[in-house]
Amino acid sequence: MKKSTFRFQKGAFLMFLLYGGLFLLLFWRIVHLQTASEVNGYSLQAEAAAKYAREVHLAANRGRILDRNDNVIAEDTLAYKLVAVVNEDASKNSKEPVHVVDPAETAKILAQYIEMDEQEIYQILTRKLSDGRTPYQVEFGAAGRKISYDTKLAIEEHGLSGIIFEKDTKRYYPNGPFASHLIGFAVEEKQEDNTIKTVGKMGLEYTYNEQLTGTPGSISYESDRKGYLLPNSEKMIQPAKDGADIYLTLDKTIQNFLDEAMTQVDKQYNPESMTAIVANPKTGEILAMSQRPTFDPADRVGLESNWLNETIENVIEPGSTMKTFTLAAAVDSGNWHPNAKFQSGEYVVYDRKIRDHNRVGWGKISYLEGIQRSSNTGMAHMLSIMGADTFYDYLDRFGFGQKTGIDLPGEVTGTLLSKYPVNKVTTAFGQGSTVTPMQLIQGMTAIANDGKMMQPYVIDKIVDPSTGKVILDDEPIVKGQPVSANTAKQVREILASTVTSDKGTAQRFALEGYEVAGKTGTAQIANEHGGGYYEGKNHYLYSFLGMAPVEDPQLIMYIAVKKPKLGETEVGSEPTAAVFKMVMENSLKYFNINPEESAEVELTKLADYEKKSAETVQVDLINQGLTPVIVGEGGPIVEQYPAKDTEVAKGSIVFLKTEGTITLPSFIGWSLRNVLIYKALSGLPIEIVGEGYVDSQSVSENTAIQDTAPIVVKLKTPEESFAPQVENTDEDGEQLPQD
């Protein structure tokens, strides 16, 4: 047997060493990778997590905007995003095609539902990537987003292959052009990280964008390359946090009343613009706010003309509505003398002439009648009695020339002119100086709220919807007390007489069953091109600042109509009255404020007026529909006729005798009986000629009787002459209907 011998093979040994070394090196590397946390500056754990980690973003809803009764004004609602699968590989292993098979037909159908033309859709469906490959799917930009559920169903009925819908949200404004310049709007914008985010661009949507914007959430997990969840992997959820809900002081019902009324007037009179505010005078809460032109926040059609919230971001010359505060200043400072007389028609300030709106005035009239007729010269005379310093002090108390502090951005202050004497006089009747509508509303709260002036506000509260926690809770703020409670009551009664008196400029603003107090305004509009002011009844800013009911005002309202297209026989108070009456009457009934009882027989029982102030009683009687006649200078009443507890018909004359010099009234139209009563009370030497009703008198009205010369009063029967027709005019000198 042959004995084997070991032979050393050098080549094989070298190969063993080489491959053995490589194996050891690889083994060492594997061990190192398994035990080391970082290699070549890379975190192996992070790299592994990145390879298998998946994250799904959870969208957060934008906060809602609601009215005081939880009615939605703005919210995010379910919508859909249109996506088209265009790569034919998607249909592999599928019995039916799941990609777009016919791009031309698909484009033709989609063009009927989205705002994109057919050719552009076709180009998107057939577009190639930069390397020539076909993308898996395509989208259609803004036109393919915010698809409504109804539109989605309509598209799906066509059975288009490759068309799919992904869930999305859109900002929804269910009420259309509802307080649009206050609410504003929000739109989607692409962010730097390529995400899409809804951003407020105007109004409350812009001002409170941070509070309304939610925080997106996410779901993190580990999966294989096909997206399946790996065993034992943890699923981490960071929930989305929706934006805060903002509750407004607005009342949807009252806002609807206002929008409907303004839309009707806008169509009928086609004004250049309109502005209106309704507020609760006891709290300062804004219940409704609107303007024309307006727009729908959903599509912003109509927004091109004006982005400003006219109630706070624009100033106006207030016109005669400012007389409300001139009157309040005079009453509160002890400079109101309602029965004192002034010469109407013209008032001269150095070389400047101030005229009444009818250019000629009404002769020598009382200050009370001056308020009722809205006399500019009456305000000028009242200012000279009160003093400009006192007047401007009260304007400061009422907040003019200052921001109201309302919780809205962009508020302006207006300018109170005072450099020249004529500026002070014109400011007293609302010309030259400027204010905002919101300042007028704030000032009016003091008149309606027994002297307490309330700061206007529109945000009631801000609430975290996930927890119900109130983040912000606004409360009424008393800004001051510019006048006393007694002054406020007296001003209300005087302003009520502008509605009830046959001389009043606000007769059109009377409501059935509710007593209204307020002041009309007819402001000239500055000509921005040629200087001065526009002329003609179609070139004024007509307004009304009023409240109801007078005894305990629940609502105040400002309405202004700029440059309405009035017919030949129409006057400026008609469009403003149409809005005011519709909104105020419906809103009072909505608040269950019962109308005053109407008596079957229109009789009024007289109270005991003796020893009371004739001026106060005078206003009270006017508001009751009676005609007071003061016999004497005014002051304490020493005798009345008819006596207390006497029932008299509406329109009857009530005589109030006081001490002092007697100023003769107009007897025109009086009955013989009333002339005899006046003669007995006054003791004047009145000689009566004829029968029936007074046709003429030898001594003019407003004459102070100083001697004992006889006063001849001639009467005629209806058969002998027609009853005299006395024209009442509004602030434009236009004839008002007779009562």
From TrEMBL:
It is an enzyme of class 3 (hydrolase). Residues 658-717 form the PASTA domain. Signal peptide: none annotated. The keyword Transmembrane helix applies. Residues 728-739 have a biased composition (Acidic residues). The chain crosses the membrane at residues 12-31. Keywords: Membrane, Transmembrane, Transmembrane helix. It catalyses: Preferential cleavage: (Ac)2-L-Lys-D-Ala-|-D-Ala. Also transpeptidation of peptidyl-alanyl moieties that are N-acyl substituents of D-alanine. Its main location: membrane. Pathway: Cell wall biogenesis; peptidoglycan biosynthesis. Its EC number is 3.4.16.4. It comes from the Bacteria. Belongs to the transpeptidase family. This is serine-type D-Ala-D-Ala carboxypeptidase. It comes from Lysinibacillus louembei.
